Amino acid sequence: MTQPMITMEHVSKKYENDALALDDVNITINKGEFVFIVGPSGAGKSTFMRLLLRETLPSSGTVKVNGYNISKMKNKDVPYLRRSLGIVFQDYRLLPNKTVYENVAFAMRVIEAPRRLIQRSVISVLDVVGLKEKYRCFPSQLSGGEQQRVAIARAIVNQPSIVIADEPTGNLDPETTWGIMEIFHRINQSGTTIVMATHNKDIVDTMQRRVIAISDGKIIRDVAQGGYDDEI
Ligand SMILES: Nc1ncnc2c1ncn2[C@@H]1O[C@H](COP(=O)(O)OP(=O)(O)OP(=O)(O)O)[C@@H](O)[C@H]1O
């Protein structure tokens, strides 16, 4: 049974300087999909991702994420939307003065999860990303790939139904990139929807998942299974 997690209907986004970043975008992303958002620099990928997080609002059209209508929802509900999403950035964004354990636990403390549940969940997700042994380390003691794995653990610890990743392997070497993609693959296998913006042709070509290509703010290709730029 298909269950829409993200829908965009006739979505356009014009910034104050009149730049048209998205132009009549229509898409549906269903539960369990793994979707790559690709396109050249300036195409509108980041704008697309920021709309999902409600970091910006559409100029027209309707964006729905996890049952929330991005334009109509109340400000007080924005934290609930964001907590229902796991978010991974290119630059990890870990808290430098907290340990690996504390960085991940923090995401559960803010929702006031019980202490026992926090302990159990943090250890479990650190195991998923292969960093259980490093729980006492600080981010500065880890490699870039390890830091990104902590960021992924933090993103999934509250069991989000959607993980949104903006260029998550952008700072990593090819070998480390594959380790990270393997983790995203496993998270997706467990039923979590994944939306990932990337410039990395190699990973898109190899993974053969849904590809949505944006150029000049328009969707120019949307294939259920494909590579970075085949058919263009
Ligand atoms: N805050 C903003 N104010 C004004 N214009 C913006 C803003 N953010 C993006 N734009 C413009 O909107 C268009 C799309 O930008 P966007 O950042 O979404 O592209 P992108 O595909 O993510 O690019 P990149 O791959 O380089 O990150 C560009 O023309 C950009 O200059």
CATH architecture of the largest domain: 3-Layer(aba) Sandwich
Q: Count the strands?
A: 10
Characterize the largest beta sheet: strand count, sense, and whether it forms a barrel. 6 strands, mixed
Q: Provide the gyration radius in Å.
A: 18 Å
Shape: globular
What bound compounds does this protein have?
A: adenosine-5'-triphosphate
Low-confidence stretches: none
What does this 3D model show about the protein?
The chain is of the alpha/beta class. It has two domains: 1-84 and 160-226, Rossmann fold; 94-159, no CATH class. Helix content is 32%, strand content 28%. It is built from seven helices and ten strands. The strands form two sheets. Strands 6-7-8-3-9-10 form a six-stranded mixed beta sheet, with helices on both faces. A hairpin with a 5-residue loop joins strand 1 (4-14) and strand 2 (20-30). Helix 3 packs across helix 4, helix 3 (100-109) runs parallel beside helix 5 (144-156) and helix 5 packs parallel to helix 6. The longest helix is centred in the last third of the chain and has 16 residues, at 174-189. The radius of gyration is 18 Å and the shape is globular. The relative contact order is 0.19. Adenosine-5'-triphosphate is lined by residues 15, 17, 19, 21, 39, 41-47.
